[in-house]
Amino acid sequence: MTELSPDHLQIPLFDLRLEREDIDAVAETLRSGWLTMGPRTQAFEEAFAAHLGVRHAVAVSSCTAALHLAYMAAGVGPGDEVIVPSFTFAATATAVVYCGGTPVFADIASLENPSIDPAAVERLIGPRTKAVAAVHFAGYAAPVDRLREICDRHGLALIEDAAHTPSAELGGRKLGTFGLAGCFSLFSNKVLSVGEGGLLTTDDDDTAAFARLARSQGMTSGTWDRHTGRTDSYDVVRLGWNYRLDEPRSALAHSRLLRLEADIDRRRELVRGYRERLGAIPGVLVPYRDEDVATSTCYVMPVMVDPGRRDAVRTLMRDEFGVQTSIFYPAVHEFTVYRDMLPATELPLTEQAARSEITLPLFPHMTAEEQDRVVESLVAGLAR
C-alpha cells in the first residue's frame, strides 16, 4: 500500500480551527501562572453542567478516566460483569477491566441503527451483571430510554459513553443525563475538543463526590485549596488516580463551549448535504434516519459498503483523490487482548458493520466543493 504524503492529502478526516478568543483564553491562563486544576476548571464544570441541565460535571483527564470512575461509582469490581457494545472505541470495555470486572459484549440493532440492541442486552443479563454501558455512536442517541427501563427493572446501573455527544438529545433530554453517569470526551478530534480531557456528568451527589475525590489521588483537598489558604494540609481517604484536567485545557474548553451549538448546527447542515448526495448511490448504506440528524451532534459521517470492497475503496479515495477516511470502529471483541482474555463471542451484525464502515471527512468549515470531491472519490472507488 502506498503511503500518502502530507502534500497529497487535500481533504483531511477532521480539521480543527481555533478562534482568537480561544487562543486568548489559553494565553490568559498561561500568564496567570496557575496551570494545574483550579478556578478555570471549576468554571468550565459549572458551565457544562448548566448546558446539559445536570447537577454535576466533573472534569477529568480523558473520557477513559470518566468511564473508569463511572464504573467504579456503580460498584463494578472483581467478579462483576458489564454489558457493553463491541461496535465502539476500546475504552468502553477497557475501563471495565480496570475495575477488575468483565465486559460482556452485546450486538448492535442493525447496520441502519448501529447502537447497542436492548433485546440483546436483556438476554445477556445474569447474576453477575452490575451495569450496562450505552454508546451514543457517531453523535446519535442510543436507546437509553429503553435501556434505563431495563436497568431499573433488574437493579443495574446505566452508564452512558457520550464521548461523541456533548449536546445531542433524545426526547428533548440531553444525552449523558439518563444513567448514573455520562462520560464525555474532549479529545482533539471530538465535537468539543481541546486535545486531551473528559468529563463525568451525574445527578447523583454521591457519584459526583466520589469522582471528585478519586480523580485527585483520594485527597481531601487540592493544590488550589492550599494555595488560596482554604486548608494547609490534607488526608488521603481512599486510593485514587491522577485524573485531573489542567487549567489551559479547561479555559480552551470553556471558550469553545460558547460556540458549541453553532458548530453542531453546521455539522448537521453538512450531514444533510452528505445524506442528499449519497442517498441515490448504489452500494452505499447511510446509517440512521434523516430525522435523526436534528437531535444528533453529527460527530462523524459513517457509511457502510461491501466489506469485500471497503479497503480498496479507501485506498483509491486516498491515493487518487487525496481524501482521508477512517474506520469507526473495528470490533472490540475481535481485538487480540479480548480474544485472549474472554470466551469466543459471535456478534454477526457488529462484525458486518466493523468490516463495512467507512468514516468520511467531516468538520465545521468543510465546503460544498470538498463534500462533492469526497462523494466523487467514494463513487469512483465503488466503481473499480
CA radius of gyration is: 21 Å
Count of individual helical segments? 14
Biggest β-sheet: strands ordered side by side in the sheet: 1-9-8-5-4-2-3
* Total DSSP E strands: 11
Helix content: 25-40%
Oligomeric state as shown: single chain
Strand content: 5-15%
Spell out the helices and strands N to C: HHEHEHEHEHEEEEEHHHHEHHHEH
Structural class of the helix and strand makeup? alpha/beta
The profile of the biggest β sheet is: 7 strands, mixed
What is the CA-CA span between the terminal residues?
17 Å
Q: Spans with pLDDT under 50 lasting ≥5 residues? A: 1-6
Outline, from the CA principal axes? globular
Arithmetic mean pLDDT: 95
Characterization of the model:
The chain has 384 residues and is of the alpha/beta class. The protein is built from 14 helices and eleven strands. The strands form three sheets. It has a seven-stranded mixed β-sheet with strand order 1-9-8-5-4-2-3, with helices on both faces. Helix 4 (91-98) links the parallel strand 2 and strand 3 (102-106). The two termini are 17 Å apart.
SSE layout and pairing:
Elements: H1 20-32, H2 39-52, E1 56-60, H3 63-73, E2 81-85, H4 91-98, E3 102-106, H5 118-124, E4 129-135, H6 144-154, E5 157-161, E6 169-170, E7 173-174, E8 181-185, E9 198-202, H7 205-214, H8 223-227, H9 247-257, H10 260-278, E10 301-304, H11 310-321, H12 336-341, H13 348-356, E11 357-360, H14 368-383
Parallel strand pairs: 2-3, 2-4, 4-5, 5-8
Antiparallel strand pairs: 1-9, 6-7, 8-9, 10-11
Helix pairs in contact: 1-9, 2-9, 3-4, 3-7, 10-14, 11-14
